[in-house]
């Protein structure tokens, strides 16, 4: 009986997401910002009454959350599990194309959080640089280990590598980035990398979204420590955002 209820639940959620207008609404909330029904109606290109009906359905299924502030009503994704499901569907639903062009909001495309680790263009480049530099070694399709030089690299950043390996979760693994359709670093090592980057002010996190901002200090550290060369930016202040964040403008040395 329990399995039957689960099947029904899955089909109901899948049907809710599958409706094109509701898909647009959910995807528009992926940047972490809450939006009004009017804004979501415009983004989904539907009437206000239709948007209200869609949002009621999504709320009933715990896919969105309603926030009431005075006379204003805002909607956001219910939690990170909804974002996770949408990201997975974005990967599956993408049709192969000769040249992949991300359709992610700019402020999320370059760098963002993915659960407790880093995602986006910057994270994919860091992942590739760790493999290229021989610090990260692929053990199978879904797992990595650190080489001796890799352990030294992370321990030099204050990461207790041996402690991470004792946690009840995967140590290091590829996590497919939905905006790049290439892997970034997941697992406890990926989580530690994000915390290190935040602690050392290499990146800063938006207060109201999953977006991350690479600082000038971070750009310099990544170049000197890992040989990851990022182009100069218009704002040269150690806490300010790099404005040149298009995927094609970045490269690993």
UniProtKB/TrEMBL annotation:
<dbReference type="Pfam" id="PF01022">
    <property type="entry name" value="HTH_5"/>
</dbReference>
<dbReference type="InterPro" id="IPR036388">
    <property type="entry name" value="WH-like_DNA-bd_sf"/>
</dbReference>
<dbReference type="InterPro" id="IPR052543">
    <property type="entry name" value="HTH_Metal-responsive_Reg"/>
</dbReference>
<dbReference type="InterPro" id="IPR011991">
    <property type="entry name" value="ArsR-like_HTH"/>
</dbReference>
<feature type="domain" description="HTH arsR-type">
    <location>
        <begin position="2"/>
        <end position="97"/>
    </location>
</feature>
<feature type="compositionally biased region" description="Polar residues">
    <location>
        <begin position="239"/>
        <end position="253"/>
    </location>
</feature>
<dbReference type="InterPro" id="IPR036390">
    <property type="entry name" value="WH_DNA-bd_sf"/>
</dbReference>
<dbReference type="InterPro" id="IPR001845">
    <property type="entry name" value="HTH_ArsR_DNA-bd_dom"/>
</dbReference>
<protein>
    <submittedName>
        <fullName>Transcriptional regulator</fullName>
    </submittedName>
</protein>
<feature type="region of interest" description="Disordered">
    <location>
        <begin position="233"/>
        <end position="253"/>
    </location>
</feature>
């Amino acid at each position: 009986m329990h399995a039957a209820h689960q099947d029904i639940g899955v089909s109901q959620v899948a049907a809710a997401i599958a409706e094109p207008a509701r898909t647009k609404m959910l995807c528009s909330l992926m940047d972490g910002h809450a939006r009004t029904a009017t804004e979501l109606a415009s983004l989904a290109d539907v009437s206000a009454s239709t948007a209200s009906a869609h949002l009621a359905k999504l709320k009933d299924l715990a896919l969105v959350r309603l926030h009431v502030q005075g006379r204003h009503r805002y909607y956001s994704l219910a939690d990170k599990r909804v974002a996770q499901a949408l990201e997975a569907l974005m990967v599956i639903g993408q049709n192969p194309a000769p040249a992949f062009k991300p359709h992610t909001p700019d402020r999320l495309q370059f760098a963002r959080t993915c659960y407790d680790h880093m995602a986006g263009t910057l994270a994919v480049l860091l992942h590739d640089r760790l493999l290229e530099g021989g610090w990260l070694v692929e053990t199978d399709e879904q797992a990595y280990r650190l080489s001796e030089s890799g352990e030294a690299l992370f321990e030099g950043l204050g990461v207790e590598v041996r402690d991470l390996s004792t946690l009840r979760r995967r140590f290091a693994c590829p996590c497919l980035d939905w905006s790049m359709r290439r892997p970034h670093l997941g697992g406890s090592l990926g989580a530690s990398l994000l915390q290190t980057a935040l602690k050392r002010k290499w990146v800063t996190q938006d207060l109201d979204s999953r977006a991350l901002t690479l600082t000038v200090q971070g750009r310099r550290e990544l170049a000197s420590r890992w040989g990851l060369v990022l182009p100069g930016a218009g704002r040269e202040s150690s806490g300010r955002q790099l404005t040149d964040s298009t995927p094609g403008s970045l490269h690993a040395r």
